[in-house]
């Protein structure tokens, strides 16, 4: 399988960093329309328009994007796309926040889906509703996760950039040695806990599974499918309180059971790199992860199997963490050129190149149907499971208070993982902090 951008993708889960949202709130109403990265409107004497794109990618993905830009410029000689930004995606929020405060920002930036609500509070963010309504791929042909991740109050505030989903990657050798059948669709979280317990051999340094233990978004987003499956939600319908007060403790009980059995490797560092290293060294039976990790697992020589996420109900449920290309207003010429480029980039013939070479899932069903993607699926063990999961995948809400809700839940998960709290006590503390954040006017 083609190499994937290892340096960027694990950190793409979006470590929450305090202060970014507050800074955005401070500048949301003060940035001056039309101010941008250049001293002019980006239009040269010959009519060529230059678009500045802060891409946030590293290694393979950066090279793929450079190739796509070169092809775009050959077919659109009056538009130049300047790739820059100087930072990876996990610190893009801080850079964009500072740029908005200074009135000198790019035309396009790679923004995590979980950060979009806060970034979109700036009047400099371009509304893309009309662009997707008239694009070459019908908007409804995009996966619901792609659409939902960029829609705020009924308006499309960014273009989908990458798409993924969570499933369980299993080490076949360890399952075979433990005498366990490989899990298939329809298995339960009780099955998962039982498998993890059986797979664990503390004397040999083997773990049943792993969980990020830093309390950041990488820790949190793995719990939302459990909460959704139980009928809960991130925010209640009233918008003033969390939507998992009645379901969160049961979801956290799965975490508590894993911790009780000492069957979970708790990764103490951001990015989950240590957790994945344990799996790739053959010392972990199951890893809840996304398609971005498959190349490293194959490179490590692990004979693996991919199963959908377990559930409580028997219904399929997973989470997708789409990220975005957000457009900023540097004048009509540059905004229109940015829209032209992103429309071109989303076409299936470009999207499939990005997906195959840089490690994303197809943004639309039209891309999924292309022979190139179907060939990729046929050659890659388990990739079809991640793609099929998009049928029922949900996304975190595009809500300005989401970072605070996530931070509160992250602390609760870590407390349970480390045996410092019961699910019920941890959830009460989470609810107190998250509900207070939801009551703050935005």
From TrEMBL:
<dbReference type="InterPro" id="IPR006059">
    <property type="entry name" value="SBP"/>
</dbReference>
<dbReference type="InterPro" id="IPR050490">
    <property type="entry name" value="Bact_solute-bd_prot1"/>
</dbReference>
<protein>
    <submittedName>
        <fullName>ABC transporter substrate-binding protein</fullName>
    </submittedName>
</protein>
<dbReference type="InterPro" id="IPR006311">
    <property type="entry name" value="TAT_signal"/>
</dbReference>
<dbReference type="Pfam" id="PF01547">
    <property type="entry name" value="SBP_bac_1"/>
</dbReference>
